[in-house]
């Protein structure tokens, strides 16, 4: 029987603050102390008996544009302003700081909608005009599931910050018939074992390894439901305004700085196809992983070079089979030659 747990109390937020005040909370611009810098120069010049070195003329250095994004909590909150992040974890921390909530409360983010829309998930790229909605933890749920078939019918993704959650439930599958389990639920525990901090492929593997015919306990946490039906971004200026053309995106990486890019149609189609293969063969969905695979394949001249590139990268931890690597290379080769014009929407989850 399903067991429900008390819903978490409302998170602290900026309910009494204006957007301008919220902006101040999220403003992380550094405030350099010129006196500290000068003091260091004085000490050095004093020790050497010389004069201060000339400071560079900052007037000749053009100011670096600052990317600013607007955000809300999906269940309802004032609009916040965040900036200064280079990866997903930093983005979540900025949102948490903006609303004075623990970063562990954020399950995932969607772009330009407060709804739990898996087609709008925030992944490795954010449009410069995008409005970010943060979905926070709601009610925990615990159900018993009997694995009567080989596949449960789930597609798992993660938020890049330690939480795996359900992205898709196959119609007519075992999990489709389990009450109260829904798309967007964070998979917190299996048989009492915490999965916090696990990547999507690790959670998928644990589900796949459950023996057919056995019963297990699944604990999930649903996103906090919205009490408002018309919440949404303001109709005024949003995003980074003068920087965004509607096509440019901010590319977030797990390592290295974020960069502003103009999406390439071939790259977009190729990464979608690779993501579909990941979903079909491994039951996971990860745009950043798909983009990494594409970048390795783009530089390779043949399947052998591609396989070596996979093995020598951080992707070796996934343990891709030779057949799967060959299928990935087929998608990449088709994309390079222009044969990959559309992506199939059919998925065959394997766990």
TrEMBL record:
Instruction: List the InterPro entries.
Output: GH2_GIPC, GIPC1-3_GH1, GIPC1/2/3, PDZ, PDZ_sf
Tell me where in this chain the PDZ domain is found: 142-222
Ranges of Low complexity compositional bias?
A: 37-54
User: Which SUPFAM superfamilies did the record assign?
Assistant: PDZ domain-like
Q: Spans of biased composition, class Polar residues?
A: 16-36
Renumbered residue ranges of the record's region Disordered: 1-65, 229-255
Q: Which family is this protein grouped under? A: Belongs to the GIPC family.
Name of protein: PDZ domain-containing protein GIPC1
Organism of derivation: Biomphalaria pfeifferi
């Amino acid at each position: 029987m399903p067991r429900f747990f008390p819903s978490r109390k409302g998170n602290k937020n900026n309910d009494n603050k204006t957007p301008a005040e919220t902006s101040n909370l999220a403003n992380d611009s550094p405030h350099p102390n010129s006196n500290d810098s000068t003091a260091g120069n004085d000490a050095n010049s004093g020790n050497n008996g010389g004069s201060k070195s000339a400071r560079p003329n900052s007037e000749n250095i053009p100011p670096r544009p600052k990317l600013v994004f607007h955000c809300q909590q999906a269940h309802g909150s004032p609009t916040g302003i965040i900036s200064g992040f280079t990866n997903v974890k930093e983005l979540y921390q900025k949102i948490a700081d903006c609303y004075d909530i623990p970063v562990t409360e954020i399950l995932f983010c969607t772009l330009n909608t407060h709804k739990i829309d898996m087609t709008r998930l925030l992944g490795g790229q954010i449009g410069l005009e995008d409005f970010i909605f943060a979905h926070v933890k709601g009610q925990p749920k615990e159900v018993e599931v009997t694995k009567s078939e080989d596949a449960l019918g789930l597609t798992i993704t993660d938020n890049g910050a330690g939480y795996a959650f359900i992205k898709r439930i196959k119609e007519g599958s075992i999990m489709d018939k389990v009450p109260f389990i829904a798309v967007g639920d964070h998979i917190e525990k299996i048989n009492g074992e915490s999965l916090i901090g696990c990547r999507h492929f690790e959670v998928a593997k644990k589900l796949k390894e459950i023996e057919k015919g056995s019963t297990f306990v699944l604990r999930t946490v649903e996103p906090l439901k919205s009490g408002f039906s018309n919440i949404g971004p303001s109709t005024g200026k949003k995003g980074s305004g003068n920087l965004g053309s509607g096509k440019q995106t901010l590319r977030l990486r797990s390592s290295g700085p974020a960069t502003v890019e103009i999406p390439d149609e071939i790259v977009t189609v190729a990464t979608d196809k690779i993501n579909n293969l990941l979903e079909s063969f491994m039951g996971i969905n990860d745009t950043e992983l798909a983009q990494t695979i594409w970048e390795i394949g783009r530089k390779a001249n043949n399947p052998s070079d591609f396989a070596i590139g996979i093995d020598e990268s951080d992707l070796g931890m996934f343990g891709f089979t030779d057949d799967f690597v060959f299928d990935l290379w087929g998608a990449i080769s088709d994309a390079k030659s222009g044969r990959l014009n559309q992506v199939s929407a059919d998925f065959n989850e394997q766990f």
